[in-house]
Amino acid sequence: MSTKMRPFGETISLADARAIIARSLKPIERIERVPLDTAHGRVLAEEVVAPADVPPFSRAAMDGYAVRAEDTTGATPGQPAILTCIEKVFTGQMPSQTVGRGQCTEIATGAPMPAGADSVVMVEQTDAEGTHVRIFAAADPGQNIGRQGADIKRGQVVMRAGELLNASRVGAIAALGRAHVDVYARPRVAILSTGNEIVDPGQPLQPGQIYDINRFTVAAVVAEHGGTPVSHRTAADTIPDLERALDECLEADVVVFSGGTSVGERDLILDALSNRGEVLFHGISVKPGKPTAFGLVKGKPFFGMPGYPSSCLLNTHILLVPALRVIARLPALERRTITLPLARRVVSAKDRHQFYTVRVVDGEAIPAFKASGDITSMSQADGYFEITAETDSVEQGALVEVTLF
User: Fold this and answer.
1) Residue ranges of domains in the chain, CATH in brackets
2) DSSP 8-state assignment for residue 332
3) Model-wide pTM > 0.90
4) Cβ-contact 106, 87 below 8 angstroms
């Protein structure tokens, strides 16, 4: 094998990289049925049609008395209408008697309305003595009643495929009596670190070795954005081992390798990717993250992330997250931004779009970036601001738009 470095060809812009990735994505088609109590945050894969009215019966919306409105006409505190209470109805039971002229039924909130009654007078507007109930306010027909089907009508389309299930939408499905629902499967994302020096946490370090960071940071981001991370064992810096690892990862919907995408003699990801699929780009004019690669293997997106932890994690946020959400059929992520003065001057590499991490302290953006290999450049940051390729420095006190993690 040649011991020469293999320099990058021409890098592409961040915009071009995003466009190439976007053209290569296909929303997931697999569907699975899940219990309703696990459906929050999933994407609906069916049209939900109401099999019955909700509520299934007319019910009292207040504690009080179910009456015929015409029997309370003209009732005032000084001249109450006097009715005879014929029954008490609580939630979970059906009335057994019909309310006739001059009669009423004591009723609890949520209990089914008795036949004959067309309104409910709240208990605060009444006074009872034995079976005699004084009504101090005239009732309007329909008052304080939740009508059958007022919320959802039988045959109504309650939700359509593609809707994100939040708490209230899960509640609407529960109101229909459904215990399960069809949702789109979460994309499986194979995650693998490469490098002879990479060791799993919990194992002793030998001289020249470092612990694997990227497999854990990428997995955390994937799980947060609708994917199922599937970790694979570290691959050595040889083409046969990288090809073996790549083949094993193709059961997933997306493949993410970290490391091996730079220009050293052991940065062999591009060779393995070329042998198994298609390299769509290698090298982006960004900092950190220039060595990022992207391609397709058997139609599945492959992300070759830089090995340096901060570069890998930042590019996971910038490139992988939007792609994963498209595949998972999730809505585009809207990150929160705030505008703050920069605490001290920052110098940037010209001709490269830089993502500069900062901490937010006392109303200022304090630079947090150390180096691409330092995970604390991210772990001690609250967000980042962007420096365009045309800018070589941002002065202290300049207002910057910070995108929060």
Assistant:
1) 14-29+186-327 (3.40.980.10), 33-54+156-184 (3.90.105.10), 59-146 (2.170.190.11), 337-404 (2.40.340.10)
2) P
3) no
4) yes
